[in-house]
């Protein structure tokens, strides 16, 4: 489902609500390699959006972003860009917002294309040093 307004289709407030839900549900899992089941993530997206095509659009971007974060967490969640816990990690607002910027605006065919880590880190550090305050932005509790 391509759109000329990807941010309108997946607004920042929805991204924040999805991440807050994801973090809350993930924190209920026991420590270790346990991961939230994809079926649970899909259910959340389809239950929170009345249009199945919008749910699919948002789900694909969110899942790709969380997959990227998971694959690169040791490099991304360092110093001021993340807060590490025992077996979990919390991300800073700059990482959270950089993920949003990189993934929400991607066309369907490019959702899972890799982002070079150095490019992502440069943007996340820039967002950390000069925090953006776009419309709809709020401090994340996750």
Write up this protein.
The protein has 142 residues and is mainly α. The protein has one domain. A two-stranded antiparallel ribbon has the order 1-2.
What key phrases describe this protein's structure?
142 residues, mainly alpha, two-stranded antiparallel ribbon, 56% helix, globular, disordered C terminus
Structural class: mainly alpha
Low-confidence stretches: 84-89, 137-142
Query: Quick one: overall form?
Result: globular
Widest β-sheet, arrangement of strands = 1-2
H-E order = HHHHEEHH
Summarize this entry quickly.
The protein has 142 residues and is mainly alpha-helical. It has 6 helices and 2 strands.
Task: Indicate the topology.
Elements: H1 6-9, H2 12-26, H3 38-48, H4 52-76, E1 82-84, E2 89-91, H5 93-104, H6 117-129
Helix pairs in contact: 3-4, 4-5, 5-6
